[in-house]
Amino acid sequence: MNDMASLDDDRRYKAPALEKGLDILELLATSSAPMTLTAIVNQLGRSHGELFRMVQVLEFRGYIEQDPSADGYLLTDRLFSLGMQRPKTHSLVEVALPVMRQLALDVGQSCHLALHTLGEMVVVARMESSEQLGFSVRVGYRRPLVKAASGAVLYAFQPEDVRRRWEQMLSPPLSDKELADWRVHADEIRQRHVELTPSRFVAGVTDISAPVMRGGVAAAALTVPFLEKLGPQVSQEEAAIKVQTSAAAISDQLIDSDSRI
Question: Three-state SS across 116-137?
């Protein structure tokens, strides 16, 4: 018996209609391109009749939308927006933004704050650099944990059971060797408390990331995409210290904020 079948057998209650809707949302969340209704039907192994009304309702409620340039559906940011309204996430961003503003001024670079979601990191806040030349990522930007410095930091500062659960969410899954190397790398980050790694996507950018701690684990990762520029600037090493100091400052304020709740 597979794990899903076992899960189905163990559940006390079932809601088939709800599960079809969730299946659609989860499928579109992992798709890098718009998906037609036919593609959704085929991927989920359902019939058009089962999913047609589900797709219509999800579109009407604003959770998915048709891509104007392609024949297919995309996930909107409605779920992301709802998640941002959660008290803990909201307070985290509120606390972080003033610190991020000062960090951006101190290093002359942009910075952003990222959380974990379904095996990926997602940017929930950013602060632009005051410099004319710089690099930044938009709120809502996401990448697999293993392909981003912030993802590595988020993973590194989790207990083993959480790490194993996140590993199951990685898509595509890692080979045994890749996973072993990833775990070793995470342990190294945990020892030095900061990650500096050349960006996999932008030449000349080194991602500098440190954990924002809450309750003994990384609640977020604070990251500066450090762009090498001409002219005076802080060094990567100096920027790394400032990122760590800023992440620690946010962590301390979160403790104070939680104690007042």
Answer: EECCEEEEEEEECCCCCCCCCC
